[in-house]
Amino acid sequence: MSNFKRFVKYAKPYKSQAALGIFFNILYALFTTLSYVILMPMLDVLFGETKKVYQLPSYPGISHLSKEYLSTLLNYYVTYTNTNYGIERTLTYLIICVISVFLLKNIFAYLGKITLAFLKNNVLKDLRDEIYRKIIDLPISFFSEKKKGDIIARATTDIGTVNKTFLDLVIVFIREPLNIIFTLFIMFKVSWELTLIMFGFIPISGFVISIISKKIKKQSKTIFNKGGNILGVIEESIGGLKIIKAFNAETFFKNKYHQQTEEIRSLSNKMMAREYLASPMSEFLGIASIASLLWFGGKMVLIDGVMTGGTFIGFMASAYNILTPAKTISKANNSIKIGNSAAQRVVEILDTVNPLADIKNPTKLNEFKHQIEFKNISFKYQDQYVLKNFSLTVPKGKKVALVGQSGSGKSTLANLVTRFWDVNEGEILIDGINIKHIQTDSLRQLMGIVAQDSILFNDSIKNNIALGIKTIDDNKIIEAAKTANAHEFISDFPNQYNHPVGDGGGMLSGGQRQRISIARAIFKNPPIMILDEATSALDTESEKIVQDALENMMENRTSLVIAHRLSTIQNSDLIVVMKKGKIVEQGSHDTLIQLNGVYKHLVNLQNITKNPISS
Fold first, then answer.
1. Is the dihedral of CA 467, 470, 474, 479 positive or negative?
2. How much is the pTM?
3. Domains, the chain
4. Residues 346, 158 contacting (CB under 8 angstroms)
5. Is the backbone of residue 429 left (phi > 0), alpha (psi -120 to 50) or beta?
6. Which of 147, 179, 303, 517 has a Cα at 20 to 30 A from 614?
7. pLDDT by residue (tens digit) across 280-321?
8. What is the pLDDT of residues 418-457, one digit of tens each?
9. What angle do helix axes 540-554 and 474-483 make, rounded to 10 degrees?
């Protein structure tokens, strides 16, 4: 129920809309009760059981209104109309009253539903926006530990379930209790004895439903978790379809998916069996209470003569108006259990603390003046350190290259300086300020990144190059594309810069994707460039052209270059050779060759005798 209250709080910005919806539902509940009450005099007239009253009763005042006065008043007008105009006129008047009451009931039913439906959609929209903002704000480490498919399931399927349960039930919990309250008031006025008899069955029904609900909650939570696993398998299968087919692994993944769906099928069958049991059980108990009312009420009409037949039938109709919303509420209880399981998964994301969130009043950097300093930093993703007591200074305007075997920590340094992760020990300083104290947006505004994997979004080439830039200058986009050696192939497309790249850039070749990624970094024009294997997907000719462009772009700019192809970094101001998270050598290309150590060994492995880029 705490989760239910939490999601209902999202309705606070729409209080006026909620108040209007509640008002309409109050009127609906009132006219629903009146629609049964109006049947009583109608039936009494039909059965000829109306008591004859020939004298208009005196008005007792608003504070002394009673059932007896209202009944006498109604009987007087029925008697008067029958005497002066005939029974047909009386029936006509009563039918007009019945139609009017039912018309108003349905008008307010529609207005109440539509108003709260708009409220529900507003809340749902805000909830979707919030969870997406949270997903975007959370650090990369969060998604390294979770399956992407499960995150997608929580942001879509689980929120949909919250919508269908918690938010839909707002309408139920406003409307149905009001129905019950108004109807009970009338029933007590008609016969408190019969009302108490019916009440005896409510605790029994509630006890039975609660037993069923406990099982439903447990099973629904398991189903939601497995639903997330299914989306995870689908996401992995689509992303790795080429590898699956290349290794003839289709059968393996089909069986893996089948196992997940089979487990969900089995659990769903058990849960639905219990959920659907609640309805017939509550209906049977309702019929038992109706049967008891028929027995005792029949005696009051036929034997004791203390109640007219019309009044008794009207009372029975009112009793049905109690059982229907009570049944709806009992079903809603099951829905809450299901919704609570989905809500817990959504709340887990919403309540996740971002360890990389900006501190209070962080420093905002508008420019880069002096240097980047890695000061005795140590870092580990899980248990084993990737970097240990690592120190390095990158002066402004210098090009520093990081080389070494895979797993030596080169890409990790790029992730740390951009604050995708935080160091475990030590500190990273920009112009003497710890990056943990710098506003993250302003920190990343100083940096341009070309990642090893060229990531493009399902949009136009133009929007991919100008990613995150509000004001787009077409001329600057073209200049950036020319520098990245991308303008020529872009111009060959029918729509040129408005050409779509497809999902993940799938409509482009690997080299084309990489050049657009480079153009994106160039267009941003930051003072610090981080290149993580920026030319890895290019052919030899394109590599030479792009490398020349990158050299020009990096001139008078601070650059941190991660490379496996040593031919691309020989002109660097400083080459840092790394091994197992530590610096083993550093210096210029010529200096490292003369050392005759690790770097020269790597050069010899790549058969580099001279700089093929600059020659």
1. negative
2. 0.71
3. 2-350 (1.20.1560.10), 356-446+528-536+555-615 (3.40.50.300), 456-525 (3.40.50.300)
4. yes
5. beta
6. 517
7. 666 676 667 767 767 777 777 666 666 666 666 767 777 766
8. 888 888 899 999 988 999 999 888 888 888 888 777 778 8
9. 120
